[in-house]
Amino acid sequence: MTTLIESNEHKSLREAVAAFAKTHPHTLNAEDNKRLWQEAAKLGYIGVNLPEAHGGGGAGITELALVLEELGAAGNPLLMMIVSPAICGTVIARFGTEEQKRDWLPSLADGTRLMAFGITEPDAGSNSHRITTTARRDAVTGDWILTGRKVFVSGVDIADATLIVGRTEDARTGKLKPCLFIVPRDAEGFERRPIDMELNAVERQFELTLDDVRLPADALVGDEDAGLLQLFAGLNPERVMTAAFGIGMGRYALSRALDYARERTVWKTPIGAHQAIAHPLAQAHIELELARLMMQKAAHLYDAGDDIGAGEAANMAKYAAGEACVKAVDQAVHTLGGNGLTREYGLGRLITASRVARIAPVSREMILNYVSHQTLGLPKSY
Q1: What's the rounded Cα separation, in Å, for the pair 239 and 245?
Q2: 58 vs 224 pLDDT, higher one
Q3: Residue 141 half-sphere exposure toward CB, CA atoms < 13 A
Q4: Contacts of 161 (CB under 8 A, 6+ apart)
Q5: Fewest CB atoms within 10 A around its CB: which of 46, 71, 215, 217?
């Protein structure tokens, strides 16, 4: 029942975040974005999911997703919320050493530091088993030495470190297994190059090169043998938060279209009275609401410790939110006609941005593969 009816605490949080977000202009540049992040952090919104013992709010991904959704619905989504507190903060809180928790969690929660996340590679894409970034131990010093490349890493230029997914060799089997490492932004051999994107977003995308980056032994997060368990502890929240990002964006676009449809009069009545305008907007609203229900289910399952159930629901939520977001943005632009492409109304830039909810961090096709295999029990084609 908790996934169907929001508690009074959640309603109050939603109202507070919405009121806060509406007091800010749209964050169309890095300085505004940074100011919004810091002010949200001071109010406890950025670190709401992190442990109270380390400066966070002691809540969960449910509350963090709610915050991101409401920021997005006001036209002020913070992309790095998906990365810094949701992926990196969650992984460190669950698997990090006490020293790593003390070092990182308070500053991630209060907004004074950010952490990026690097997993995708030029030749790996959705197949994490093909990751070629390797980590080997220096037999003399015990240091880790990382070598490899990453692409489409958000916010590396503003992050103090990047949580890198590498692979180490299992001494017993010789097989490579995924491991997570904290790489400081100024580490020697750690280089970044901006990717020239047509996406109009404050947060930039980067390609990373790790050329024999030497890290101390304590740069490893968690158990070297935990493998995919630790990785998906971060990827499931990532999917939930991406769903929140898409739902917020869709709600923002829909709200702009509704304001316009109520006021724009071509003949005797506002255009919103015509079913050709009204029905598609109603459908967009319904699909956003349905996506939100699945997102809430996924977040509740994750916060309850059901990683397997959360994995299925998080993928479905991300799929549903991506589709609903694209439909809402498209219909909003169509409702405004030529005005939908003007800078004044701010919808044109969402045409590209909404597609991100479909293709990242995992494509809808890979989600359909997951549901086909894991949920429906169908054989793999690959």
Answers
A1: 10
A2: 58
A3: 10
A4: 113, 115, 116, 182, 183, 184, 185
A5: 217
Q: How far is it, in rounded angstroms, from Cα 201 to Cα 131?
A: 27
Owner of token pair 């605490």: 9
Q: Is the peptide bond before 122 cis (omega within 30 degrees of 0)?
A: no
Beta bridge partners of 220: 181
As a whole number of Å, the end-to-end CA separation of the chain is 38
CA distance 288 to 248: 9
**Mapping DSSP to helix (H, G, I), strand (E, B) and coil, where does residue 52 land?**
helix
H helix or E strand, kind and range, residue 244 = helix 228-263
Gap between the Cα atoms of 183 and 115, Å rounded: 9
Q: Quick one: angle between helices 61-73 and 275-303, nearest 10?
A: 160
Amino acid at 150: K
Contact 240, 303 (CB under 8 A): no
Reported pTM: 0.94
